[in-house]
Amino acid sequence: MANSINRRNWIRSSAFMAGGLAFCSGTITKLAAMPKRVLRSPRALTDREVALAAPFDLKARLLANENPFGPSATAKKAIADALDKSYQYPFMLASQLSGKIAAYEGVAMKNILLDSGSTPLLHAAALCYTKGGKSVITGDPSYDDLPTYAEEFDGKWVKVPLTADYKLDLDAMEAKVDANTGMVYICNPNNPTATVVDTAKLKAFCDRVSKKTMVFIDEAYIDYLPDPQNSTMISQLKAGNNIIVARTFSKLYGFAGLRLGYVIAQPETITTLKKYSSAGFNISSTTLAAAVAAYQEKDFLAETLKKTNESKEYLYSVLKKEGYTYIPSSANFVMFPIKMDGKKFSTEMFKRSVGIRDWKLNGQDWCRISIGRMDEMEAFAAAFKEIS
């Protein structure tokens, strides 16, 4: 049977090759001229690679900035209810979600582009705005999926060191803008430092710099701020500025495995980005149903934020007791300097079934620890005390 299947596959392949030579010869030049495509950037897999290398029986998975409290009961019920119609393409659900977002943010549906997480939208922007060797300016360190992807397609990456208090240096970033700048990328709150820049200063930055180049504001962690609505740069977009604001359901909503994100931008920008993305076609009906049901579910979001902050305060107390400092966090993770080699530290923590991320910052070894459930934070504390 196996040989028969193999023969049939070989016959089909041979027939295709024979019949397709004319087609190939007529299109090979076009194909060669197209930009090279890869499934992901090398850095995009960093957290995944760390997770895959971890033991299966982790007591504490604190390595990927996930929401360990998971999606709401409302979202879970919506997923189950959506299964009966999962044979249908979810066009109406996507439209319904876009309508909800538009109404809440005070924009039009034509300002919104959905996709399976914010990652493909970051990649679309990288492809669009750094093609032809254009540069993207970022903080250093900052979330580097977009600029790394840009480099894969011959874009240039201009890194600007953080300020002394580990925040994005907006003045220095603006000073780097030149004729070859395709985009400025701002992750706020910043990953991996969990710091946030002054809102008024960032608004003024967007107003000035967007007149020179595209400004991309990644607000993946904005829901962890005390007042997201007054901290977002969507107001700058509504004022007519040339910016892109990215959001994700992967954090406070607990959708990291469900995959859903979106950008809000000027209509002409959305039209352009659609050429470099799936335009939301790869989002499942179950995910969209969950998002429609859970979007701006105030009680759930408030409770999840409360539990996150309680775990964060517990972590702060553990670090202080062990004689460690840390960067005050405006997100669901914390960076703190460690007193040994970073790789050794992470290896020793993994041996104790605790997954974390090690980092190099200004020549110093650091740990980035995601905020987990209280039992996970207690597991971290027990392991940390053994090796600190």
User: What ranges have pLDDT less than 50 throughout 5 or more consecutive residues?
Assistant: 1-45
Q: State mean pLDDT (0 to 100 scale).
A: 89
- Spatial extent as radius of gyration: 23 Å
Approximately how much helix is present in the residues?
40-55%
Shape: globular
Query: How is the biggest beta sheet arranged?
Result: 7 strands, mixed
The first-to-last residue Cα distance is 60 Å
Structural class by secondary-structure content: alpha/beta
Helix count from the secondary structure assignment: 15
How many β-strand stretches? 12
What spatial order of strands do you see in the largest sheet? 2-8-7-6-5-3-4
Strand content: 15-25%
Element order: H for helix, E for strand:
HHEHHEHEHEHEHEHHEEHHHEHEEEH
Q: What's the layout of helices and strands?
A:
Blueprint: H1 2-33, H2 46-53, E1 60-61, H3 73-82, H4 91-105, E2 112-115, H5 119-130, E3 135-140, H6 145-152, E4 156-161, H7 170-175, E5 181-187, H8 199-209, E6 214-218, H9 228-231, H10 234-238, E7 243-248, E8 261-265, H11 267-274, H12 285-294, H13 298-321, E9 333-337, H14 342-351, E10 354-355, E11 357-361, E12 364-370, H15 374-387
Parallel strand pairs: 1-10, 3-4, 3-5, 5-6, 6-7
Antiparallel strand pairs: 2-8, 7-8, 9-12, 11-12
